[in-house]
């Protein structure tokens, strides 16, 4: 399969792009080079290769969720710009 200038023009139209003739030629050449490179995969013998969704096994690398005590409310409110009834007071965002 190869990409033609008409294919590039069609995709450019769908993407609402205005391409010059030079750009159309350049993109046609680049896309054909990509396809030619991808065709090398057809040379590989994949008969005994099991299909996978990822080449490496996926492992969760996050640490365990451990419960720990929070800061006391008095210490937290020391950093608050304004406080009311033991809560941080912020400007209203709704009318």
Description of the structure:
The protein is mainly alpha-helical. It has a domain at 5-43: Glu-tRNAGln amidotransferase C subunit, N-terminal domain (Histone, subunit A, Orthogonal Bundle), CATH 1.10.20. The chain is 35% helix and 4% strand. A two-stranded antiparallel ribbon has the order 1-2. A hairpin with a 2-residue loop joins strand 1 and strand 2. The termini are far apart. The mean pLDDT is 90.
Q: What does this entry show, briefly?
A:
With 95 residues, the protein is mainly alpha-helical. It has a domain at 5-43: Histone, subunit A (Orthogonal Bundle). The chain has helices at residues 5-14, 21-38, 73-77, and strands at 83-84, 87-88.
Defining key terms:
single chain; 95 residues; mainly alpha; Histone, subunit A; 2 strands; 4% strand; elongated; ligase; Asp/Glu-ADT_sf_sub_c; EC 6.3.5.-; nucleotide-binding
Spatial extent as radius of gyration: 29 Å
State the low-pLDDT regions, or none: none
Look at the structure and give the mean pLDDT: 90
Largest sheet: 2 strands, antiparallel
Quick one: overall form?
elongated
Number of strands: 2
The CATH topology of the domain at 5-43 comes to Histone, subunit A
The strand order across the widest sheet is: 1-2
H-E string: HHHEE
């Amino acid at each position: 399969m190869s990409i033609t200038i008409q294919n590039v023009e069609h995709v450019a139209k769908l993407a609402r792009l205005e391409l010059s003739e030079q750009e159309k030629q350049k993109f046609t050449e680049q896309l054909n080079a990509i396809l030619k490179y991808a065709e090398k995969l057809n040379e590989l013998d994949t008969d005994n290769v099991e299909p996978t969704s990822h080449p490496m096994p996926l492992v969760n690398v996050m640490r365990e969720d451990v419960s720990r005590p929070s800061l006391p409310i008095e210490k937290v409110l020391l950093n608050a710009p304004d406080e009311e009834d033991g809560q941080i007071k912020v400007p209203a965002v709704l009318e």
